[in-house]
């Protein structure tokens, strides 16, 4: 730049004064990790079922997850939040979960979607309650984003049910195991 002026994109930063930084850091870190993991799950499902009749449905949900991840990447920069150190693990674990569930067929992939999306929408609801208790006006933009993403996750959950998730082999066992994994991933990603 001429005259030695620095190029700094001020619009990518938010005012951090008065926010509860530990709470916001935890929320953005874990949501970024969750959306990253969701992207890897859908990538794994597409690797197995991409050319099947359910491929376009999985792709549609994956496209929304890509938008979610893009937004959380932006929020990480804006709020100056470091990502979880577990991203390399979620990279592999997410893909393996997606591909593994897809190897059970369409119903297995949809069972995975139902389990994960139910866990995530419950988690988003908990975050919404936290931010509402903190200061709904101060966190208005973040609340809008989380509410919209929660609604998208609920839609994915319902799509999974509409596509025979409950008919997957050992559905309740599969769902419970995946949801326990989600709870552990949430717990760890918030903190590490």
UniProtKB/TrEMBL annotation:
<dbReference type="GO" id="GO:0008682">
    <property type="term" value="F:3-demethoxyubiquinol 3-hydroxylase activity"/>
</dbReference>
<dbReference type="GO" id="GO:0005743">
    <property type="term" value="C:mitochondrial inner membrane"/>
</dbReference>
<dbReference type="InterPro" id="IPR011566">
    <property type="entry name" value="Ubq_synth_Coq7"/>
</dbReference>
<keyword id="KW-0479">Metal-binding</keyword>
<protein>
    <submittedName>
        <fullName>COQ7 protein</fullName>
    </submittedName>
</protein>
<dbReference type="Pfam" id="PF03232">
    <property type="entry name" value="COQ7"/>
</dbReference>
<dbReference type="GO" id="GO:0005634">
    <property type="term" value="C:nucleus"/>
</dbReference>
<dbReference type="GO" id="GO:0010468">
    <property type="term" value="P:regulation of gene expression"/>
</dbReference>
<dbReference type="GO" id="GO:0006744">
    <property type="term" value="P:ubiquinone biosynthetic process"/>
</dbReference>
<dbReference type="GO" id="GO:0046872">
    <property type="term" value="F:metal ion binding"/>
</dbReference>
<comment type="pathway">
    <text>Cofactor biosynthesis; ubiquinone biosynthesis.</text>
</comment>
<dbReference type="GO" id="GO:2000377">
    <property type="term" value="P:regulation of reactive oxygen species metabolic process"/>
</dbReference>
<dbReference type="InterPro" id="IPR009078">
    <property type="entry name" value="Ferritin-like_SF"/>
</dbReference>
<dbReference type="GO" id="GO:0008340">
    <property type="term" value="P:determination of adult lifespan"/>
</dbReference>
<keyword id="KW-0503">Monooxygenase</keyword>
<keyword id="KW-0472">Membrane</keyword>
<keyword id="KW-0831">Ubiquinone biosynthesis</keyword>
<keyword id="KW-0408">Iron</keyword>
<keyword id="KW-0560">Oxidoreductase</keyword>
